[in-house]
Specification:
There is one protein chain. This protein has 522 residues and is of the alpha/beta class. It folds into three domains: 3-216, Orthogonal Bundle (MetI-like fold); 280-361 and 472-518, Periplasmic binding protein-like II (D-Maltodextrin-Binding Protein, domain 2); 363-465, Periplasmic binding protein-like II (D-Maltodextrin-Binding Protein, domain 2, 3-Layer(aba) Sandwich). The protein contains 19 helices and 13 strands. A six-stranded mixed sheet has the order 2-1-3-12-4-13, with helices on both faces. Strands 9-6-10-5-11 form a five-stranded mixed sheet. It starts with a helix and ends with a strand. It is found in: Cell membrane; Membrane. Residues 14-208 form the ABC transmembrane type-1 domain. This is D-methionine ABC transporter permease MetI.
């Protein structure tokens, strides 16, 4: 990809990352700070000692910290939809990011407050200060440098978490790196996003360290000059304490204002993201070739038909359908009929096909052998791990004599349906990861769209490939049942089956992807 193509991707990814991290940082600050203070106050020897509350809150925090973020991201999809009305997009990604960051920041707050000199707390109490006074005039001001350092660490962790946000269509630099750098084998994109992430993290760390040094210097300056008699030292301490608290109060205000204002400045970026005029179609699609075909339609054909496409890219095969079912997107384009039938049956969804668009022939590829005869006992073959594509892969292998399937093994065949493996070992992988495994296995059955990303062509490079004629695996435009007659959908269906799109597919993919227009069979 050229720099002119990479630049807009980086720009959009940068703002998506700032939007997600900014919002989640603000929520983590508001949620994690009181939880961390509560853990200290209710602990043994604390001003609000309560063993039960401390254990319950501590257990909740520990559970939150123990969950890997990718699992939390998926598990919270129903809750995310309840909170923000959608489970896809940058705004949706903020919910799991914030929930994952709150317990992390809470423990950092707890650690920072425990470092405060208990003598100062006792002095404030001796002067008649209650719990609020101790917290706001002693604990938080004294712990402020450590709190800012903890917040800086939290922001950096959130930047890392945001790289996974592409799973829910959140975008961000991490998503750009995966979709364009990793899956499309574009090394230049990967390098550019890595550099951008390094720059962002470095700037955040430098700013955080500078604020910490500023606050620490103010605290040390306020503590200087404690000399004289016991009475004199006491009086000086009282006066010094007042000046110190005032100075740290101002420093605290600056730090908290920065923590709040910067995220709030990004709020406007997300306003209206889920909106649009009545002619805008939100479409979930896999990056290749589906999103590429839609982008061609958007740039060259859609305006004449009076429609605008909001194309949302996903790396998995689940969220596009659940988002279509919930109405968060209007349509999707990524799947074939056997997969959709299986998905609807297992998930009680009501997605229906509208029109076939293209076919991605499944192929068996190898970097270690030059023909089917080279594969035999002791070799390892990678296959996609989703139900229909794994069955599709096994039928391809069986057709060419590499395995034997049990009688009656259907389109959803699994490894358990193999009657004779003929000595082969199988490795089940996510479809997107299969091309990357070619260096580690003897052969791999690769989906057509991922083969394109890996610069593989089933017509030229495959040891064996599916036939196009009579193939039931054409990919189609799909909507929730009842939306088939939406005028926007009808217009898009017409464009996707146009001669211009047919020519685009044939020229761009050169046989790796084939046009497959027309009605979707039952």
């Amino acid at each position: 990809m050229s720099w002119s193509e990479i630049q807009p991707l980086l720009f959009q990814g940068f703002w998506d990352t700032l939007y997600m991290v900014g919002w989640s940082t603000l929520i983590a600050l508001v949620g994690g700070l009181p939880i961390g203070v509560l853990l200290v106050l209710t602990d043994k020897g604390g001003m609000l000692h309560n063993a039960l509350v401390n254990k319950v809150v501590g257990a909740i925090v520990n559970v939150g910290r123990s969950l890997p973020f990718i699992i939390l991201l998926i598990a919270l999809i129903p809750f995310t939809r309840f909170v923000v009305g959608q489970s896809v997009g940058s705004t949706a990604a903020v919910v799991p990011l914030a929930i994952g960051a709150i317990p992390f920041f809470a423990r950092l707050v707890e650690t920072a407050i425990r470092e405060v000199d208990r003598g100062l707390v006792e002095a404030v109490q001796a002067m008649g200060g209650g719990t609020p006074t101790v917290v706001f005039k002693a604990l938080l001001p004294q712990a402020l440098p450590s709190l800012v350092a903890g917040l800086t660490t939290t922001v950096i962790v959130l930047i890392g978490y945001s790289a996974m946000a592409g799973t829910v269509g959140g975008g961000g630099l991490g998503s750009v790196a995966v979709q364009y750098g990793y899956q499309r084998f574009e090394t230049s994109v990967m390098i550019a996003t890595v550099v951008a992430l390094i720059v962002i993290v470095t700037v955040v760390q430098i700013i955080g360290d500078a604020v910490v040094r500023l606050l620490a210097a103010g605290r040390e300056g306020a503590a200087a000059g404690r000399e004289g008699s016991a009475a004199g030292r006491g009086a000086a301490a009282d006066g010094g304490a007042g000046k110190r608290l005032a100075r740290l109060g101002r420093g605290r205000g600056v730090a908290l204002a920065a923590a709040v204002v910067l995220p709030l400045a990004l709020i406007g970026y997300g306003i209206g993201q889920s909106g649009g005029d009545k002619q805008t179609l939100r479409i979930a699609a896999s990056p290749t070739p589906h999103a590429e075909i839609l982008e061609y339609v958007e740039k060259n054909l859609a305006e004449k038909e009076g429609i605008d496409l909001d194309i949302r890219k996903f790396n998995d095969y689940v969220v596009p359908n659940t988002a279509t079912e919930s109405g968060e997107v209007d349509a999707n384009f990524f799947q074939h009929k056997p997969y959709l039938d299986d998905f609807n049956n297992k998930n009680d969804t009501h997605i229906v096909p509208v029109v076939n668009v293209e076919l991605e022939p499944l192929g068996l590829y190898s970097k270690k052998v030059g023909s089917l005869r080279g594969l035999g006992s002791g070799d390892t073959v990678a296959v996609p791990n989703d139900s229909t594509n794994e069955g599709r892969a096994l039928h391809l292998l069986a057709k060419h004599g590499l395995i034997e399937l049990k009688p009656g093994a259907g389109q959803e065949a699994t490894l358990g349906d193999i009657a004779d493996k003929k000595g082969l070992t199988f490795k089940e992988l996510e479809a997107a990861a299969v091309p990357r495994a070619l260096d580690d296995v003897d052969a791999a059955v690769v989906n057509g769209n991922y083969a394109v990303d890996a610069d593989l062509n089933p017509a030229k490079d495959a040891l064996a490939a599916e036939k196009v004629e009579g193939n039931p695996y054409a990919n189609f435009l799909a909507v929730k049942d009842g939306e088939q007659d939406d005028p926007r959908i009808r217009k898009l269906a017409k464009l996707l089956n146009s001669p211009q799109v047919e020519e685009f597919i044939e020229k761009k993919y050169k046989g790796a992807i084939e046009p497959a227009f027309g009605h979707v069979g039952s």
